[in-house]
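Now for my pick.
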Amino acid sequence: MNIKEINSDFFTVIAVLVGFNITSVSLISVFNKDTLRNVFSKLKGGKEKEKVLKQLISSFIYCVFIQIGIIVMGSFYNIIVEDLIKIEFLQGIYNVIKRLVILSLYALWIGIIFHSFIVSIRNVFLIYKFILAVYKE
């Protein structure tokens, strides 16, 4: 299986995760101020409550940016990079060096994708806790 096929498989999953994260940000922003104040009632002071809310939203926004970046970079690879490998100059590079570079970039790419999945799992937990806190009040 090559990177192009892996990218197309991951794109669908990542697009769903982007939708989940955007929906979660929308869900948090729909609550009125009184509800949000009650959710963070254990915190002292308005600045601390605001800081926690910003961290919560930032977590989802970060994940959206990472996942959109994965889709954009994966599309860039699928469209352009494979054609660059076929250039005559690059075919003259030793196979060992070329394979080492490709393997390193592949490992980095898979690492970024799995990082995105881990952050999404954390976000599922965060939205779960947020919803429980809202309905507990």
